[in-house]
Amino acid sequence: MTQSATPSAHGTVVSVSRDERHRFSKPAVASIRLLTDFGVEGDVHAGATTQHRYLVKKDSTRANLTQVHLIAAELFDDLRAAGFTVAAGELGENVTTHGLNLRTLPLGARLHLGTAAIVEVTGLRSPCSLINGYQRGLMKTLIGTDAAGHVVRKAGIMGIVIAGGTVLPGDSVRVELPVGEHLPLGVV
């Protein structure tokens, strides 16, 4: 499938979160500042090279493809229906959106957040076992299979900061699709 790099969808920022320490959840804040090629200012996962504890152990020089974690707020409604109570930031995301099916975006899609910030989508988040420590059984709900037997990861998407800027709840999110063939997201 090929399409031009024109806007294809719009959504809204519901919440923004950051944490300077490695903890499972990130507290919601009034705003976050995205720094080009670095991530969320003041967040433990910001950096040019990977900051995720598991990935650092594998290769500390690896480029950081997980600078920004985004989750659609609609996931929380699905989780609530399955018996879980999860709010914005509690799954460790930096940006919670509404109105976009983030998991179906192609690799390289660009999310224009607010007036200046741009995040390029690098892949799917693969939830780690810490999720079960947060709420027992939650990981199984966030990783499932579709009717064809394909693994479906629901814990959000990851991206890198292409253009910096401040992001606030209520800001618009505009999707810019990549030019050329649209590749599905893999796990980063």
Automatic annotation (TrEMBL):
<dbReference type="InterPro" id="IPR052716">
    <property type="entry name" value="MOSC_domain"/>
</dbReference>
<dbReference type="GO" id="GO:0030151">
    <property type="term" value="F:molybdenum ion binding"/>
</dbReference>
<dbReference type="GO" id="GO:0030170">
    <property type="term" value="F:pyridoxal phosphate binding"/>
</dbReference>
<protein>
    <submittedName>
        <fullName>MOSC domain-containing protein</fullName>
    </submittedName>
</protein>
<dbReference type="Pfam" id="PF03473">
    <property type="entry name" value="MOSC"/>
</dbReference>
<dbReference type="GO" id="GO:0003824">
    <property type="term" value="F:catalytic activity"/>
</dbReference>
<dbReference type="InterPro" id="IPR005302">
    <property type="entry name" value="MoCF_Sase_C"/>
</dbReference>
<feature type="domain" description="MOSC">
    <location>
        <begin position="26"/>
        <end position="176"/>
    </location>
</feature>
<dbReference type="InterPro" id="IPR011037">
    <property type="entry name" value="Pyrv_Knase-like_insert_dom_sf"/>
</dbReference>
